[in-house]
Design brief:
This protein is mainly β. Helix content is 2%, strand content 38%.
Length: 473
């Protein structure tokens, strides 16, 4: 990116020395190489885009400006000429413009509280006496009021991205923090994903700490990408509670007081929070488990730390992923992400390498076993949960059963194989208090070791239900 100075455009950044700025220092993948099409050549006059010494209006967050059109074969770069009157202001009450995208060859602007389709080459349609339509173009730019597509909007620029539907149309996705919704606008209209897929309660309780945070590459905010290979929309949310007192050795902390102490040692790269179990002073949180309990990173009262996946194939949210990347970049039909801790300049290509392993730099890597959760709450009333019968390639590594009365853990060694790939797993009693597993509902977590390939085709639960007779009186 070297530009030759002219009398009307003196030397400005990035020109340095003999024009060696951004020269590559080592061989890199040619697909990531510098595009020579951006080099000054063929006598095309290119005006500089920014003058650091000029005064600029910087608070036009709801304005759209456009340049002069570029004629075919022109030696003058008209796309860098912006006339004073070529500007349009959107409604102030809808907030600033978060992002603008080309969706199916239409300009879509996303404000904080509105999403509009804008008109560049306005047209008017007349009906002739024969009944056929005549389209009359006036060649004007932005002379018509935009059409509201939805009153949902977004505060988070990096949560806005474009995907592709099963029918090949562009689809716009974004997170609306104010309405606690994940939104989708495509060829079939606007959908709020949280409404369609029963995630309203989840987003209502798991978006609060990303408010006013929109710098995901710096640690907090919302990053997003569309994985074209699997038709998956992905959001990573990173945020945590502000204003928590930092632990100091000379302070007195009462039971129930939260404190902030240290940073996570794993790939999360977030501050650690602890809750006081006793009245104490001088008791270091990470060394005294009798005085302090660490807040788990899944506690929405302190953290919003998760990666959630929406499938265009299934039209539903389908999974949470273990990695929480700081930022995403599209690459071919997938994406790449930087390592979040140590060696942060390294980039990793998704869906390659070992299963359930991420960010392997030869010394450390993020690993996690796979799991999925199932909820059983029917029929209504108290139920005793007896065993799980699963059809799977291997015995399930561990089944965790959680009810209102306790938690139990059943290892693979308890499973008994029957005909074919059918496994019978008796549900162990809870440890404290020791009792069978009963309640109005149960959540079963099926955990599978990352080192053992397994596929669960189906399962069901044997239980004993207590059904009361209802007599009308």
């Amino acid at each position: 990116m070297f530009r030759k100075p002219t009398p009307t455009s003196p030397d400005v950044f990035p020109e340095q020395g003999q024009g060696l700025w951004l020269t590559k220092s080592e061989p890199i993948d040619p697909r990531l190489n510098y595009n020579q099409g951006y080099t000054y050549q063929n006598g095309v006059t290119s005006s500089r885009t920014f003058d650091a010494n000029a005064n600029y209006q910087t608070d036009w967050g709801n304005a759209i400006v456009w340049s002069n059109p570029q004629g075919a074969g022109s030696n003058t770069d008209s796309l860098r000429i912006f006339l004073p009157n070529d500007i349009k202001f959107l409604d102030f009450k809808d907030g600033y413009i978060t992002d603008a995208r080309n969706i199916n060859n239409e300009l879509i602007t996303v404000q904080q509280r509105n999403t509009l389709r804008q008109f560049f080459n306005s047209t008017s349609i007349f009906t002739t006496t024969e009944g056929s339509e005549t389209v009359l173009g006036d060649g004007a730019v932005m002379n018509r009021q935009g059409t509201t597509m939805t009153k949902f909007g977004s505060d988070h620029k990096w949560s806005v991205f474009v995907g592709r539907s099963e029918r090949g149309f562009d689809v716009l996705y974004f997170i609306d923090w104010q309405n606690k919704a994940a939104c989708r606008l495509g060829y079939n209209g606007n959908d709020t994903l949280e409404e369609i897929n029963g995630m309203k309660s989840f987003f209502a309780n798991n978006l609060q700490w990303v408010w006013n945070e929109d710098k995901p590459a710096n640690g907090q905010g919302i990053a997003a990408v569309f994985n074209q290979r699997y038709r998956e929309a992905m959001w990573t949310l990173r945020g945590w509670k502000k204003g928590v007192v930092e632990w100091t050795g000379d302070a007195l902390f009462n039971t129930g007081n939260p404190v902030e102490y240290g940073m996570s040692t794993g790939f999360e790269n977030v501050p650690n929070f602890y809750i006081a179990l006793t009245d104490n002073t001088g008791s270091q949180p990470d060394l005294n488990p009798l005085d302090w309990a660490q807040v788990p990173y899944t506690d929405s009262n302190y953290y919003n730390l998760y990666t959630i996946i929406f499938s265009e194939f299934k039209n539903q949210f389908q999974a949470f992923h273990s990695p929480k990347p700081l930022i995403y970049a599209l690459f071919e039909n997938g994406y790449i992400v930087p390592r979040p801790i140590s060696n942060t300049s390294q980039l990793y290509l998704a869906n390659t390498g070992n299963l359930c392993e991420w960010f392997n730099d030869g010394s450390t890597s993020l690993t996690s076993d796979a799991h999925f959760d199932a909820v059983i709450n029917q029929p209504p009333g108290r139920k005793n949960f007896l065993n799980i019968i699963a059809e799977s390639d291997q015995a399930i590594t561990e089944i965790t059963c959680t009810t209102p009365t306790g938690v139990s853990f059943t290892p693979a060694s308890d499973a008994k194989q029957r005909e074919g790939n059918e496994w019978v797993v008796p549900i162990r009693w809870s440890a404290a208090p020791r009792a069978d597993m009963y309640g109005d509902w149960a959540v079963f977590r099926f955990r599978m070791s990352r080192t053992l390939y397994n596929k669960v085709n189906s399962f069901y639960c044997r239980l004993r239900a207590y059904v009361a007779r209802v007599i009308n009186s």
